[in-house]
Specification:
Elements: H1 13-40, H2 82-86, E1 93-97, E2 104-108, H3 114-122, E3 127-137, E4 143-152, H4 156-163, E5 167-172, H5 177-187, E6 193-197, E7 224-228, E8 241-243, H6 256-268, H7 274-282, H8 284-290
Parallel strand pairs: 1-5, 1-7, 5-6, 7-8
Antiparallel strand pairs: 2-4, 3-4
Helix pairs in contact: 4-6
InterPro entries: Dullard_phosphatase, FCP1_dom, HAD-like_sf, HAD_sf, TIM50
Organism: Erythroxylum novogranatense
Protein name: FCP1 homology domain-containing protein
Length: 299
């Protein structure tokens, strides 16, 4: 009870003015601090690991999912600072593009359900029909003709147009030439592909068939990238691969080409060596290791 009988403390007017002044100054500095934080929050981020919603950040390609505990093979590639890159004139980037399920999806016309075809057309997918020479022949020895319905991935023409402005384009498919050549003629009327490679150009390895070897396409392994929905296609050069989401006729609103791949490839075109960037983003060596393919299986 003693504390209740102590005299009440009374503050002088001078003390109150002092506390009021200090409070105002603290509020002023706090407002400055908040303004700095807000300004920093609008800085664009290029890191793919960031969860920022900035328009400059890349959307992830959700194909490769590795736990953070997976051990990665050692990567001995020297990184180059932005200032060093800016001082040098970089050779043009080579972009190797897969065909089926990366740029288009195709069906034998006779086996394509009419309902599925009509739904895709009504949803706005661009399409065309094609006559292709099959690898087998008719009973009379004449070449067999297959009829194919092809759906283009949304944004395909604009994607090829913009990529060709800063990169050399190469078409590399495991499809047979009799099917793929007339198809590519239709989607590449402006001849943006400087080279077209078909199944005979792929190689068979101990682990997978129809692997696409990039070593014959560029003398500079740091300035070539391959985009493919099948990661095993770039088994020989996992550090150069971009595993894209497969495209199917049931995805009429897919925007991977323009919203995901185009910004990423444009960013890679500004790097002296694409491999450190792709390794940090996709961790493909670790992914192949999880599939039972050791690093010793690569060149």
């Amino acid at each position: 009870m003693a504390e209740l009988t102590q005299p009440e403390v009374v503050y002088s007017p001078a003390s109150l003015r002092l506390w009021t002044t200090l409070s105002n100054w603290l509020g002023f500095f706090f407002q400055i601090f908040l303004s700095v934080l807000r300004a920093l929050g609008h800085l664009p981020l290029l890191s793919s690991s960031s969860s920022s919603s900035s328009p400059h950040s890349f959307k992830p390609l959700p194909l490769v999912e590795l736990s953070e505990t997976d051990s990665l093979p050692a990567v001995e590639i020297a990184t180059v600072s932005d200032s060093q890159v800016a001082d040098e004139r970089l050779p043009k980037l080579t972009v190797v593009l897969d065909l089926d399920e990366t740029l288009v999806c195709a069906f034998e016309t006779s086996s394509l359900p009419v309902v599925l075809r009509n739904q895709a057309i009504e949803a706005g997918l661009k399409w065309f029909e094609l006559e292709c020479v099959a690898s087998d022949k008719e009973s009379e020895g004449k070449p067999k003709i297959n009829y194919v319905t092809v759906f283009e991935r949304p944004g395909l023409d604009e994607f090829l147009k913009q990529i060709s402005e800063f990169a050399d384009l190469v078409l590399f498919t495991a499809g047979l030439e009799g099917y793929a050549r007339p198809l590519v003629d239709r989607i590449d009327k402006d001849n943006r592909f400087s080279l077209r490679l078909y199944r005979p150009s792929t190689i068979n390895t101990e682990y997978r068939d129809h692997v696409k070897d990039l070593s014959c396409l560029s003398k500079d392994p740091g300035r070539i990238v391959i985009v493919d929905n099948n990661p095993f296609s770039f088994l020989l050069q996992p550090m150069n691969g971009v595993p894209c989401v497969p495209f199917s006729v049931g995805q009429p609103h897919d925007m991977q080409l323009l919203d995901v791949l185009l910004p990423l490839l444009r960013h890679l075109s500004q790097q002296k060596d694409v491999r450190p960037v792709l390794h940090e983003r996709f961790h493909m060596p670790a992914w192949f290791k999880k599939q039972g393919i050791p690093a010793s299986g690569w060149p």
